[in-house]
């Protein structure tokens, strides 16, 4: 009985087939693990956000906190948190947030107001762009 392939070629194909099978079986696990880790990371960012004034500033500006945590990059959120924690104008921030927001409310003291204004506009435009059901 003759084999159509040499034994070495047959073993090589078998090894490659096993590797492809292993990758195919491990991929769903890796994806699921990545999703869980990402969710855990965002939750930790949210918990850290709660301990800072920026969490209240998001509400003051009308920025959806959950959407902020979901759409902004983790590095940017951490930068916002660090800037907020190091802010020298915390009393002014508290006073402004305690008042009702007016169109002319001066928020220039905020170290990351440009980013927050951009996020506010993006959220408003995405809300307008979504069809009403």
Report on the architecture of this protein:
This protein is an all-alpha fold. Helix content is 74%, strand content 0%. The protein is built from 6 helices and no strands. The chain has helices at residues 7-50, 53-61, 65-71, 74-85, 90-98, 113-129. The longest helix has 44 residues, at 7-50. The radius of gyration is 26 Å and the shape is elongated.
User: Main sheet?
Assistant: none
First-last Cα distance: 70 Å
Helix content: over 70%
Q: Briefly note the structural class of the backbone.
A: mainly alpha
Q: What overall form do the CA principal axes indicate?
A: elongated
Number of helices: 6
Radius of gyration: 26 Å
**Strand composition percent:** under 5%
The low-confidence runs, each spanning 5 or more residues with pLDDT under 50, are none
Mean of residue pLDDT? 86
For the secondary structure, the number of strands is: 0
- Helix/strand order, N-terminal first: HHHHHH
How are the SSEs placed, and which strands pair?
Layout lengths: L6 H44 L2 H9 L3 H7 L2 H12 L4 H9 L14 H17 L4
Helix pairs in contact: 1-4, 2-5
Short note summarizing the structure:
By secondary structure, the protein is mainly α.
Task: Give the key terms.
133 residues, elongated, 74% helix, 6 helices, mainly alpha
């Amino acid at each position: 009985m003759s084999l159509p392939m040499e034994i070495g070629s047959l073993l090589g194909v078998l090894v490659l087939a096993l590797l492809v099978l292993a990758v195919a079986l491990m991929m769903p696990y890796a994806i699921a693990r990545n999703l869980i880790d990402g969710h855990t990371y965002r939750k930790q960012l949210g918990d850290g956000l709660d301990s800072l004034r920026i969490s209240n500033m998001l509400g003051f500006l009308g920025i959806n906190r959950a959407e902020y945590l979901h759409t902004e990059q983790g590095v940017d959120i951490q930068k916002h948190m660090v800037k907020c924690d190091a802010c020298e104008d915390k009393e002014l921030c508290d006073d402004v947030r305690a008042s009702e927001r007016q169109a002319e409310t001066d928020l220039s003291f905020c170290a990351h107001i440009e980013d927050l204004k951009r996020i506010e506009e993006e959220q408003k435009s995405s809300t307008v762009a979504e069809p009403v059901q």
